[in-house]
Amino acid sequence: MRIARFDNNRIGVVQNNGIQDVTGALEQLPAHRYPFPRQDALIANLEILENATTVRVVPLSRVELLSPVANPGKIMAAPVNYKKHLEEALADKGIHHGNLVNEIHKAGIFLKATSSVVGPGEGVTLVHTDRRNDHEVELAVVIGKEGRDIAAANALEFVAGYCIGLDMTIRGTEDRSFRKSPDSYTVLGPWLVTADEIPDPGALEVSISVNGTERQRANTRELILSVPELIAWASSFYTLHPGDVLLTGTPQGVGPVRPGDMMVASIERIGEMRVGVS
pTM value? Predict the structure, then answer.
């Protein structure tokens, strides 16, 4: 199933004929009072969409696609998780700015602000445009159930689904969490593809073009730490909750974008998303 969030927080199931609007199913979500749970209520209850009633079908071309995860509890991101990206980061001063660049086993997973999340239809608004702002396309893993100290062998059982992620970043000397957390610097979309449709997240082609020119292309089989290994590692430090997002790392070819650019990111078995830059 491909689950989209669009327009004014509508929910739909993506089919060949467009988006089947099933927003009425949200009435089945459990009611919560303050303090609210540390999870995304829809991601924790995706089964309510399985037999949801369609009230209309909307063409994809007529909607604004939002992030398929409305309330991620945390955004975890894996740095330098492709060997060739590690090599380019070490070689390009425009990327490392004199910072120590460690491979992922030493660098660890970092966190991004949840306020940085947008959908492809909202686009990226650059800040500090006097500095280099780069695109980084990644496979994004959305956690589906709570877990701690998860074994890698069982890790995929905790996945709700997958989407495309753009981990936008401002180059500079500050900590990467700071430089990657401005508003709109985490783009998730175009929709959530449930885990049953992607049995092997370790064999997906990933790419991005800017203004029609391809910048990045790789396959997730080239990840240094696989999706199950990343989930296991993250869960050894903190509890994972439904709606948490894990960005798995970007391949070689990162580069700058400027206002007016159009990014087209794609991942095999998920689709593609067009993201404007302003």
Answer: 0.95
